[in-house]
Design a protein that fits this description.
3 strands, elongated, three-stranded antiparallel sheet
Length: about 110
């Protein structure tokens, strides 16, 4: 009693999951279960947590990382576009960092 839980998890109902479909990178062995706001709320309430709060999780990427990800996780439309960017953009530009909403959830709850 009196504790706070804070976690970050991929959201199985996110726009990125719907966009990438079966190629969503979080469909892998390390993510044994898929979570979303509904099932996390149910689970946390069931084990005695309250004041459950969800926020989008921002991540910082650069274009080199995005290019690498779309080479490994093919997407019908995004991968060809990213390959073009890889060919035409200077190396310096590919190193600039920018915030991205990836479809992950930040979850906070109190017990």
């Amino acid at each position: 009693k009196g504790g706070v839980l804070s976690l970050c998890t991929p959201d199985s109902n996110s726009l990125t999951r719907r966009f990438q479909g079966k190629n969503w990178p979080h469909f892998n062995r390390e993510h044994v279960f898929c979570f979303n706001k509904r099932n996390i709320s149910h689970l946390l309430t069931h084990i005695g947590f309250s004041d459950i709060c969800f926020k989008p999780a921002w991540k910082i990427f650069n274009l080199r990382y995005v290019i690498h990800q779309f080479h490994g996780h093919q997407h019908l439309y995004a991968t060809p576009a990213v390959k073009v960017l890889d060919r035409i953009l200077p190396r310096l530009v590919k190193g600039f960092c920018f915030p991205v909403l990836t479809g992950d959830l930040l979850v906070e709850a109190k017990k």
